[in-house]
Amino acid sequence: MRKLEHAMHGGRIARAVLAALAFCALPLAAQAASNDNNVEWNGLFHDQGPLFDNHVEPTAAQAVTLTLRTFKGDITSANIKYYDSADGQFHWIAMSWSANDATGAFDYWKGTVPASASEKYYRFQINDGSATAWLNAAGISTSEPSSGDFFIVPGFTTPAWMKNGVIYQVFPDRFYNGDPSNDVTNGQYTYAGCATEKHAWGASVVSNVGGCNSAVFFGGDLAGIDQKLGYIKNTVGANILYLNPIFLSPTNHKYDTEDYMQVDPAFGSNALLQTLIADVHGTANGPHGYVILDGVFNHTGDTAAWFDRYHWSSVTGAYESQSSPYYSWYTFQSWPDSYSGFFGIASMPKLNYGASGSAVRNTIYGSSTSVVKTYLKAPYAIDGWRLDAAQYLDANGGDGSDATNHQIMAELRSAVKSVNPNAEILGEYWGNAGPWTDNGTEWDGAMNYDGFMQPVSEWITGRDYGNNAASISVSQFDSWLHGTRANYPTNVQQTMSNALGSHDTTRFGTRAGGDIWKTYLGLFFQMTYVGTPTIYYGDEYGMQGGADPDNRRTFDWTVGSATNSAVALTQKLIAIRNAYPALRTGSFMTLLTDDTARLYAFGRFDASNRIAVVLNNDSVTHSVTVPVWQLSVTNGSRLTDQITGTAYTVQNGQVTLSVNGHYGAILAQ
Question: What range does the record give for the signal peptide (predicted)?
Answer without folding.
Answer: 1-32
